Structures are given as structure tokens and as C-alpha cells.
Amino acid sequence: MNDALLEVEELSAGYGEVQVVWGLSFAAARSKLTTLVGANGAGKTTTLRTVVGTISPWSGRVRFKGEDVTRLSAHAKAARGLVLVPEGRQLFTNMTVDENLEMGAFTGRGAHGYATRLERVFTLFPRLKERRKQKAGTFSGGEQQMLAIARALMTDPEVLIIDELSLGLAPLFVYQLFGTLKALKEDGLTVLLVEQNVHLALAVSDYAYVIAEGRLFTEGRPAALAAMPEIRRAYLGL
Amino acid sequence: MLGIIAAIIDGVLIGSVYGLAALGLTLIWGVMEVINLTHGAAIVAGMFGLYLLANAVHIPPYATLPLILIGGFLVGIVLYWISVHRLMGRPPLMILLSTFAVNLVVIGLGTAAWGTDLFNVPVSLPSVTWGRYTFSGTHILAAALTTAIAGALYLFLYHTKLGKAVRAVANNREAAELAGIPTTRVLSLSFGLGVALAGAAGMLIATMFPFTVLSGDAYQLKSFVVTALGGLGNPAGALVGGIALGLIEGFAGQFMPVSWTLVIEFVLFVAVLIIFPRGIFAFRRA
Q: Distance between CA atoms of B135 and B140, rounded to whole angstroms?
């Protein structure tokens, strides 16, 4: 893909002696929504953690805007606009909504144009504006996911990576969040999504990679994938 | 003889300084879950910092406080890189041992240089008389400076971006890293702050009481008692715990020889650990 903003080449990673990801390659195209789908334990979260630098890869490369960023620390990648919304939200639960958002804008990148971005985030998630002084730990799961995405947007991402957007959220809420993501994408944001809910992932994405046991199973446009008999059987329960 | 009320008030004044020392210990624990066993050495370094700067360089005693804060901060950052950084994420015993080793080295060097003689820094301040009671000026000023330092720390942690980043790292280090906060640098900064607070507490203690190179152990243990009372990792609890400890000392001093206060404190320490393992004043983990 020529207009790939994020390219992952032959990535291998794991924990201790256990290899989880085996030579995985994929790319996220500019201003598109790309998804990684796969069953629980397929290595999706490990892949994302390796891409953003929370854990180091065993081998392989991560390129961002053509530059090799494989060995950069997670905070350095965030400062360049490669931002992860981690699984389980990982908010600063003892801190207020305002403080969480301010921490999202910690880097020079995020601090630039802070007020404008804050207004935009509050337009996307009005509920957060009503609760600016409330501690994040008191929020419901859906509100926490909103705040996690809002905090990541405060970093001014070029690629927004979201791990398990829909996990544990009410369906209505999930559709709302996908609506927001679509709007962000139309504004030019590149989104890389990991999703266990394959139905949902194929319905919203522009391109999808199917991962099984840490390896690439297949890839393609969602419509093509949804038509494949082995995908229908294994992931869609049809 | 002071009356019992005066003894209690004096205990509160001294106790606030114990609270300041414990604040250093509890801040480091709260941010990185490390028990800093160089704490006692940092307190002694603060005491000898005052002694050297005031006696040898002739700086007015209280003017040494900012120097000791800055020096403690810088030394703390170096200590983090020497004795803590590479052991983060390893079994906690390793950092206990490495910081204890640094403690032994510092105390060993101090003993070689000054022996274990008693030192005293003469600080002349007028005492304050209130009705029938008289309070030592050094005790009042120590409590006032402690309040100022604790207040400054509060402003830093709650009203500056870097201070909020310290709290963010304490709250969730991985999320802080993902938000673009250079967490390792924040850890070293927090360790520097913790050592600076211990040094400042040592300096203030040295304006009130005589000390030796080996005094650090007793005050380090007092810090542990204070954090047991206040809950480890809880800054407000450290101050309240310190004041409570000072109060107990002042009160107990009225009824029994001073040599018994340590016994009472450590009986209390064990009792609190058994009955309130999370601290008496542990409202919630910071």
C-alpha cells in the first residue's frame, strides 16, 4: 500500500519464553479505518503493544510515515502522533476528567492548540463536559471508553489505535462510538482498530486483517472477507 | 517543667517534621512502589548539610534549607539511576537491598569522616511565650517551614502539569507512557523529590536536636511508624501520622523517661500493622 501511514513488517513478539506474534505484517492506510480481527488469544493486543512500544519486538519493523520507529519508546511514539487507546481503558482513575485530558496533551504536540482541541473533544463527547471535575474512576464503562478516546485525541494523533473498542459496552453505546470514529476518519484521522466482534469490525472498516494464533490468516476488503466460507464458519457463526 | 498541654503542642510541632520526612518515603512508594532504604542516610545528609554549611561556610542556618532541598533533589535523581532504575520490575527485595547498600556506604563514609560523636548546630532563635507556656523558636519555625514545604508540594502535584504527570505515573504508569509522558524521567524526578524532603526534614531536626552520623536509623524507623499510621503512599496521611507520632511522644514524655518513647512507638508500630494494615488514616490510596 503506497499511502500507508503505519506499516508493520514481519513482526514477532512475546512474553518471556512464549512467542505470541509470529512474523505478522500489516498496514494502516491514511484516513482509513483498518481493523485487526481474530479470536480471543490470537495475539492482537500483544501486536498493538509491540507496535506502540509498550513491549519490545523480538524481530521485525514498525514504520510510521516511512520512518523506522521500531525501537522508540511508547512516549516518544505518542509524541509523534502514534497513539494507543489500551484495552481496559487504563484511565487515571484518581484524577478528574480535566486532568486526564490535560495528561493526554502532555507532549508538545498535544499542548499545541490545546484549547481548540479541548472544545472539539467536548463537542464529540458532551457528557464529558458536564463532568469535568469528576474523578475518572467513578465513571461507567461507556463513559470511561469515551474519556479514553478523548484523552487519546488530546494527543493530536495521526494514527489512533484502539484496542477492543466494544468490549463490555452496551450495543447502543458501541454504535455511537463507531459514529464518532467515522466522523473523525472523515476529518482525516487514520484509525487502526482491534476488535473481537468480527461482525461489527467488518461492518465498519475499510480494510481488515484476520489474525489466528499470532499469524496472518487472511486479509482483504470486508465484503470479500465476509463472503469467504472459512471466515463465515470460524468468526461469523454462519 | 512544661504543662501537659504545652508538651502536646510541642509534640505536634516536632511531629510535623517527622511527617515531612515520612512524606519523602511515602511519595516514592506512592509513585513507584519502592521502599527507599537510603531514606535514613538522606536525613543524616540533611543534618550534616546544615552542620557543614552553617559551621564551615558560615551560611545562616535557615538559608541552608533551599540548598539542602536542591542538593537532595539532584542527589536523589543520581541515586535513582544508580540504585533503582535497572531493578524496576524485578523482585522488590532487590531494590530494598540496593538502596540499603547505598545507605551503608553513605553511613560508612560519614562514620569515617566524623566518627559517631554527637553534633550540635547552635541556632539562636527567641522562644515564644504564650501565657504560662514557653515554646522553642526553632520548633515553631521548623513546623512553619514544614507547612510551607508541604504546601509547595501540594501546589506542585495538583496545579502544575509536571506535578499532575507525577500523579498520573503513580496512578497508572503504562497509561502515562502511552499518553506521551516520559515515565522514567518522572520516576527519577519523584525519587529526587523524596530524597529532598528527607534531607530537608533532617536539616530541620538538626536545628532542634543534637545528632550523630548514626541518627538516620532512628528517624528512618520513625518514618516507617508514621507511614504505618497514615498509610503508605498517602501524602496527607504522612503529615497527619507525623503529627500523631509527635503528639504521642510529647504525651508519653510527661509520664515516663524519654528512653521509653522509642519502645512505645515501636509497640504502636507493630500494633497498627496488625490491627490496621492499611494505616489508621488511610482514607484511600493516593
A: 7
CA angle A40, A41, A45 (to 5 degrees): 95
Asked if residue B273 has pLDDT above 90, the reply is no
Residues A55, B54: Cα–Cα separation, whole Å: 50
Tell me the domain boundaries of chain B: 4-122+162-275
Spatial distance between the Cα atoms of A219 and A217, rounded to a whole number of angstroms: 7
Q: Are B10 and B250 in contact, with CB atoms under 8 Å apart?
A: yes
Residue B204 pLDDT > 90, yes or no? yes
- Scan for cell 560508612, then name that residue: B108
Cell numbers placing B108:
560508612
Q: What is the biggest distance separating any 2 CA atoms in chain B, rounded to whole angstroms? A: 60
3-state secondary structure of B211: strand
The shares of helix, strand and coil residues in chain A, as percent rounded to the nearest 5, are 40, 30, 30
Give A96's DSSP letter.
B
Please, are residues A101 and A151 in contact by the beta-carbon 8 Å criterion? Answer: yes
Average pLDDT over residues B162-175: 96
**Neighbour-count burial of B19, counting CB atoms closer than 10 A to its CB (0-12 exposed, 13-18 middle, 19+ buried):** buried
Residues of B in contact with A88 (CB under 8 A): none
ipTM (interface pTM)? 0.92
The single residue listed with the C-alpha cell 459496552 is A169
| CA torsion through residues A62, A66, A69, A74, sign | negative
Q: Interface of chain A against chain B, CB under 8 Å? A: 52, 54, 73-75, 78-79, 83-84, 86, 90-95, 99, 102-104, 106-107, 109-110, 151, 155
Residue B238 identity (one-letter amino acid): A
Q: How far is B279 from B286, CA to CA, in rounded Å? A: 13
- B-chain residues near A94 (CB < 8 A): 167, 171, 286
* Beta-strand pair A207-212/A59-64: unpaired
Instruction: Give me the domains of chain A, ranges plus CATH numbers.
Output: 1-80+192-238 (3.40.50.300)
pLDDT, mean of residues A129-136: 95
